[in-house]
């Protein structure tokens, strides 16, 4: 009887999980379809956008690819720092290949499943405590939200940006140490928090450089301040996205925040089309790297045992 009850509960939970996944997949498909229609209609009615894209130089496209490769490398640093908070120390090459593999899976795979694949792999190979890992990931998201929020409001803050960033990090550290979170965080190796903070700040800064290059290619008079605010708005779209690369959501956030960065819809659409195309190219290059090093076979050999 007990066995049957447990089995039935598991089936019910599995059905509910599948329902949630199906609903999320449906939303993602609808958003992608609407975005494709809107972009297509926008192209048809705005020949100036097509002209701007045709004028983008190969040197600019190459620079975008290099900056995207740098952001992937920075994401590997973030993953390594996150694992150090959990007292796990894989080598750099393994972290880099795992980051590349899950980045590809996250974009092309179902339901952005990259983080889940990474968690399963690490749990199976290193006996990773998933509760610790989730907590460490929340710390990363906290840093990401802090820096993105400051960048979003940088047009208002101006010279106060640097001291407020430092103050925000100090406050965050004190909150982690002296509030109810202290007991939960006691299991983490918090002496590595600074590595995670620096890697996250580097990630957001590289995104500023990336978006500035893309914006400058379609709107040469864009300022660095506008690119910083634009980056903050684009980053927050990732927290609510259910589509690969926040397609549709990022563009909506950027349009809604126009009063902060003062960039036109034409500039936003043109820059994002360049961004999507170059990111897919980088992911295809990563796919070649993954299969060339047989990383996918090694990762699948571990995860399929779970």
Report on the structure:
The chain is an all-alpha fold. The chain has two domains: 1-45; 57-303, no CATH class. The chain contains 15 helices and no strands. It has helices at residues 2-45, 47-54, 58-85, 92-108, 114-126, 130-152, 154-157, 161-178, 181-185, 193-218, 224-236, 249-256, 258-261, 265-292, 295-303. Helix 6 runs antiparallel to helix 8 and helix 10 crosses helix 11 (224-236). The longest helix is centred in the N-terminal third of the chain and has 44 residues, at 2-45. The relative contact order is 0.13.
Summarize the structure.
This protein has helices at about 1-45, 45-55, 60-85, 90-110, 115-125, 130-150, 155, 160-180, 180-185, 195-220, 225-235, 250-255, 260, 265-290, 295-305.
Give me the Rg, rounded. Answer: 21 Å
Q: Give the mean pLDDT.
A: 76
Helicity, as a percent range:
over 70%
Number of strands: 0
Q: Could you tell me how far the N terminus lies from the C terminus, measured between alpha carbons in angstroms?
A: 27 Å
Elements, N to C (H/E) = HHHHHHHHHHHHHHH
Spans of at least 5 consecutive residues with low confidence = 1-14
Q: Top keywords for this entry?
A:
2 domains; 306 residues; mainly alpha; globular
What is the strand and helix layout of this fold?
Layout: H1 2-45, H2 47-54, H3 58-85, H4 92-108, H5 114-126, H6 130-152, H7 154-157, H8 161-178, H9 181-185, H10 193-218, H11 224-236, H12 249-256, H13 258-261, H14 265-292, H15 295-303
Helix pairs in contact: 2-14, 3-4, 3-6, 3-10, 3-14, 4-5, 4-14, 5-15, 6-8, 6-10, 6-11, 10-11, 10-14, 11-12
């Amino acid at each position: 009887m007990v066995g049957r009850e447990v089995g039935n509960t598991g089936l019910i939970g599995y059905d509910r999980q599948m329902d949630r996944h199906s609903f999320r997949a449906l939303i993602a498909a609808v958003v992608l379809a609407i975005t494709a229609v809107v972009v297509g209609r926008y192209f048809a009615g705005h020949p100036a956008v097509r002209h701007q894209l045709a004028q983008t130089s190969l040197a600019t496209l190459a620079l975008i690819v290099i900056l995207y490769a740098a952001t992937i490398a920075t994401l590997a640093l973030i993953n390594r720092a996150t694992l150090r908070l959990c007292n796990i120390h894989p080598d750099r090459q393994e972290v880099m290949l795992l980051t590349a593999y899950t980045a590809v899976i996250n974009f092309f795979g179902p339901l952005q499943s990259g983080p889940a694949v990474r968690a399963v792999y690490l749990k199976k190979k290193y006996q990773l405590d998933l509760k610790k890992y989730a907590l460490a990931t929340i710390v990363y998201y906290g840093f990401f939200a802090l820096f993105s929020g400051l960048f979003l409001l940088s047009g208002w803050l101006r010279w106060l940006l640097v001291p407020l960033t430092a103050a925000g990090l100090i406050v965050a550290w004190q909150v982690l140490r002296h509030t109810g979170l202290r007991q939960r965080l006691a299991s983490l190796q918090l002496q590595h928090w600074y590595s995670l903070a620096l890697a996250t700040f580097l990630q957001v800064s590289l995104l500023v450089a990336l978006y500035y290059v893309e914006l400058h290619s379609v709107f040469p008079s864009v300022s660095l301040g506008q690119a910083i605010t634009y980056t903050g708005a684009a980053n927050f779209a990732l927290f609510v996205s259910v589509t690969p690369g926040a397609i549709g959501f990022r563009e909506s956030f950027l349009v809604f925040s126009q009063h902060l960065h003062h960039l036109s819809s034409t500039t936003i659409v043109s820059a994002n089309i360049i961004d999507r195309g170059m990111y897919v190219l980088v992911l295809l290059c990563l796919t070649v790297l993954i299969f060339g090093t047989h990383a996918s076979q090694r990762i699948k050999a571990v995860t399929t045992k779970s």
